[in-house]
Each structure stands twice: as structure tokens, then as C-alpha cells.
């Protein structure tokens, strides 16, 4: 009971920031700074560039994962490959059931500059 009250008090003290999500805190902070139009445009550009860099890194990670998987399969026997692929498929199904944040991202990534 005490724990529940403490958590409730902390959430109330934090206000809406507790429900803002992973990026909401920085947006709320920036919105409270009375930014000029030029600053807002600069921040928009910075965020867009950072987003594009994240997508590039995610593509590189995907490529590395695929190459690693191909190298692993090259070492295995046919029976081991079947077992590996089946286990990997099960793992992917479990992952999709959990719907982690990465899975919520658009499947088709935008073209970056």
C-alpha cells in the first residue's frame, strides 16, 4: 500500500512528463524555452538529420546481422541448418508477439540524404 501511494505521489509530482514517452520530455523542455522561428527550424533540421543517421545505422546493423547469419549457416550441416532456422523463426515470432519499439517503426525506411 505504501509503495502504491509513493508511486502515485511521484507520478503526480512529475506531472504530464511521466506520460510523455521516450522523446516527449525533450520536446516538452524545448517547447518551454520560448524559441524563435529560426531556432525551431534549426532544431527540426537537427532532429531530421539525427533520424536519418539512426536509419542508416539500423540498415548497417541489419546488413551485419544478415552477413553473420549467412556465415553461421555456412558452418552448419543440413540438419543443423533446419534446426537453426526453425529456432530462429520461433524467436522471431515471439519477438513480433511482444511488439518491441523497433517493430513499431515503419517497415519501409525513408530515403535519406
Automatic annotation (TrEMBL):
The keyword Chaperone does not apply. Residues 89-113 are annotated as: Disordered. Pfam families: LTXXQ. The keyword Signal applies. It comes from the Bacteria. Residues 1-20 form the signal peptide. Residues 33-67 form a coiled coil. Keywords: Coiled coil, Signal. This is Spy/CpxP family protein refolding chaperone. It comes from Sulfurimonas diazotrophicus. The lineage of its organism: Bacteria, Pseudomonadati, Campylobacterota, Epsilonproteobacteria, Campylobacterales.
Amino acid at each position: 500500500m505504501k509503495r502504491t501511494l509513493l508511486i502515485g505521489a511521484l507520478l503526480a509530482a512529475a506531472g504530464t512528463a511521466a506520460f510523455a514517452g521516450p522523446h516527449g520530455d525533450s520536446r516538452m523542455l524545448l517547447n518551454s524555452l520560448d524559441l524563435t522561428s529560426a531556432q525551431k527550424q534549426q532544431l527540426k533540421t537537427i532532429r531530421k538529420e539525427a533520424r536519418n543517421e539512426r536509419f542508416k545505422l539500423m540498415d548497417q546493423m541489419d546488413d551485419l546481422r544478415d552477413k553473420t547469419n549467412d556465415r553461421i549457416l555456412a558452418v552448419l550441416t543440413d540438419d543443423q541448418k533446419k534446426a537453426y532456422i526453425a529456432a530462429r523463426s520461433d524467436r522471431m515470432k515471439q519477438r513480433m508477439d511482444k511488439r518491441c519499439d523497433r517493430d513499431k517503426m515503419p517497415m519501409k525506411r525513408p530515403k535519406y540524404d
